[in-house]
Specification:
The chain has 468 residues and is mainly alpha-helical. The protein is globular and about 65 Å long. It has 22 helices and 2 strands. It has helices at 8-12, 17-50, 59-82, 93-105, 111-139, 145-173, 178-187, 190-195, 197-202, 207-213, 217-228, 238-241, 247-253, 255-286, 291-313, 319-339, 341-346, 348-364, 374-378, 382-414, 416-437, 446-449; strands at 230-232, 464-466. The longest helix has 34 residues, at 17-50. Helix 2 runs parallel beside helix 6, helix 4 (93-105) packs antiparallel against helix 5 and helix 14 runs antiparallel to helix 21. It has a two-stranded antiparallel ribbon. The model is unreliable at 455-468 (pLDDT under 50).
Length: 468
């Protein structure tokens, strides 16, 4: 039996209550991420109006939209390094930061304060982007790992963004003052984050970390029992259980795949966050919608259905074809939107369907693959997985931050059609790079997808069976 045998029982386990609980526990944090990152796009005009800032494409606007993303890049790196000391050790601290920073947004007195608070909020978001997919992936079975991460990350992100739009519109219906609306919308992000702090602290350490990083066979037995009802019943020595291979060996061996994961998330976030951050304030006007209605329609009619498509196909088609399909669809929808800008303005339904189409294809493809954190988890061995995940997350946040500052300038200087045409070009490049660089990982063990176990690495031998 090769090294994958150590986790065979876990990889072959049927989807059960433990997996469902893990999805909920990780998903509520991701719900908060989606809520927090999309809500600023909805209320941005109201925030600027409250503080007498007139330009939607100026520096204050970019800093408000981008500060959380810059913080997320920092948070990802910090918590990626910390996760080498334990995945569960710091799980819950991320949503605690989210809860406190979300609430603090409701009490700021000027734009600089809100920028600083959102930067701190971003640290919690970056931490969650590292820890949630990491824990989800290392606990999931091989057959359902793709859909588990796509549900726990991709779908719940979209639902969080949808809820932000609903709350915004409800407050408008009740004629709440504009200055109160944005404070309530931003501050409400504390509620879902706080709701899972306890649950996250109660999750067990992941089996991969216990075995490969700590050599803790007793801990591994407990987790196998909790997840599957089975235990590893053969005592093995620590040197065969713990991975003694140098980390630099895995960095060298997997550098191409790590590079691919970073670049693809970077490119995706440049394209996707143009709409997330500025769609409600800039693009919505061109197709005759308010910020709230634009966000609600985008999420309910396009993003969430796209996530459902990904959930249904990701473990059947595979990650690679789904991501290529998604990027090509994004490029086509954005390209047509750019070319038909006049028609979209004259007939808003055309613009709505085209821009919505890119949201649908986005979440059906790379939004549920690259941007769900799946590639960093699946393409990196256990010993370097948390750091690789941190780097991929930071790459994505760098792309999103770049969008926060560059897209408004493109929009202001060159116009909407050119700015969106540029995004379509990036989506084409990303599709080509996915086709060339990305290996397929569907229904394979993490040890196989990360190349942790092959002819050049130490084999682990242990049987996993039911019983005590």
């Amino acid at each position: 039996m090769d090294g994958t045998g150590l986790f065979e029982r876990l990889d072959r386990a049927k989807f059960n209550k433990f997996h469902l609980k893990s999805i909920f526990t990780t998903g509520m944090g991701v719900f908060t991420d989606g809520y927090d990152l999309s809500s600023i796009g909805i209320v941005l005009p109201l925030v600027l109006l409250s503080f007498n800032v007139k330009s939607l494409t100026g520096l204050e606007s970019s800093l408000l939209a981008g500060s959380a993303l810059i913080g997320a890049a920092l948070g990802a790196i910090v918590f990626g390094l910390l996760a080498n000391k334990g995945r569960k050790t710091f799980y819950g601290l991320d949503v605690l930061v989210l809860a406190l920073a979300s609430l603090a947004q409701a009490f700021v007195s000027n734009v600089p304060e809100l920028i600083v608070v959102r930067f701190i909020l971003g640290i919690g978001i970056g931490a969650d982007y590292v820890l949630s997919p990491l824990i989800m992936g290392e606990n999931a079975n091989s057959r359902d790992r793709g859909k588990s991460i796509a549900i726990g990350f991709g779908l719940t992100w979209g639902i969080g963004a949808t809820f932000a739009a609903i709350l915004y519109m409800v407050l408008q219906v009740f004629h709440a003052p504009n200055a109160l609306i944005w404070r309530i919308v931003l501050g409400f992000g504390a509620v879902p984050a706080a709701s899972v702090i306890y649950l996250r602290r109660k999750l067990p350490e992941t089996p991969r970390f216990l075995a490969r990083m700590k050599g803790d066979f007793a801990g591994l037995q407990e987790v196998v029992l909790q997840v599957t009802g089975g235990v590893a019943n053969n005592v093995v020595s620590r040197d065969k259980l713990e991975d003694r291979q140098a980390a630099r060996f895995y960095w060298a061996k997997n550098r191409k795949n790590i590079f691919a994961a970073c670049v693809l998330w970077f490119l995706f976030d440049i394209v996707a966050y143009s709409g997330i951050l500025f769609g409600p304030s800039l693009i919505a006007k061109g197709i005759g919608l308010t910020a709230g209605s634009f966000q609600l329609v985008m999420e309910l009619a396009f993003t969430v259905p796209g996530a459902i498509v990904a959930i249904l196909l990701i473990d059947r088609w595979g990650r690679k074809p789904l991501q290529v399909f998604g990027f090509i669809g994004m490029a086509a929808a954005l390209g047509l939107f750019s070319m038909l800008k006049g028609e979209a303005t004259a007939v808003p339904l055309i613009g709505l369907l085209l821009y919505g189409g890119q949201n649908l294809m986005s979440q059906a493809g790379p939004g549920s693959v690259s941007a769900s954190g799946m590639l960093g988890v699946e393409l990196a061995p256990t010993k370097i997985r948390s750091v690789v995940q941190a780097i991929t997350v930071a790459s994505g946040r760098l792309g999103a931050s770049l969008t926060a500052f560059v897209f408004p300038a493109l929009f202001r200087i060159w116009g909407e059609a050119v700015a969106i045409g540029f995004l379509a070009t990036l989506a084409v490049i990303a599709a080509i790079l996915t086709l060339i660089l990305l290996p397929e990982t569907k229904r394979r063990t993490l040890e196989e997808t990360s190349r942790e176990v092959d002819d050049n690495t130490t084999s682990l031998t242990v049987s996993i069976s039911t019983g005590t």
